[in-house]
Task: inverse folding
């Protein structure tokens, strides 16, 4: 029985790795929304690089209601002070702009 459970967990983990790759968050569609797909937020920081990429896209890119993904590509040095402290307000400002960009593209397509 233990081998069966372990095998199923491996298959599920493999599926999520294949589908999600750099995903850090999946959402459901908003209640009452006409959109039938949630969102996927993915994050990428390549090795030996300071360029950070945050992406908001449809959780199901093949869906009819899927929107074009939006990307924030910025040097992480822009969010830290000279003593190495994260300037959280600056980071959240950029994230809010990305969210507004995604929402704006959604409204334009309707």
Result:
């Amino acid at each position: 029985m233990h081998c069966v459970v372990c095998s199923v967990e491996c298959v599920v983990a493999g599926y999520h790795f294949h589908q999600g790759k750099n995903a850090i968050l999946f959402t459901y569609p908003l209640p009452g929304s006409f959109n039938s797909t949630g969102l996927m937020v993915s994050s990428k920081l390549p090795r030996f690089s300071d360029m950070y990429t945050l992406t908001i896209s449809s959780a199901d890119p093949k869906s009819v209601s899927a929107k074009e993904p939006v990307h924030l590509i910025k040097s992480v040095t822009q969010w830290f002070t000279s003593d190495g402290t994260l300037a959280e307000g600056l980071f959240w400002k950029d994230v809010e702009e990305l969210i507004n960009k995604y929402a704006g593209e959604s409204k334009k397509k309707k």
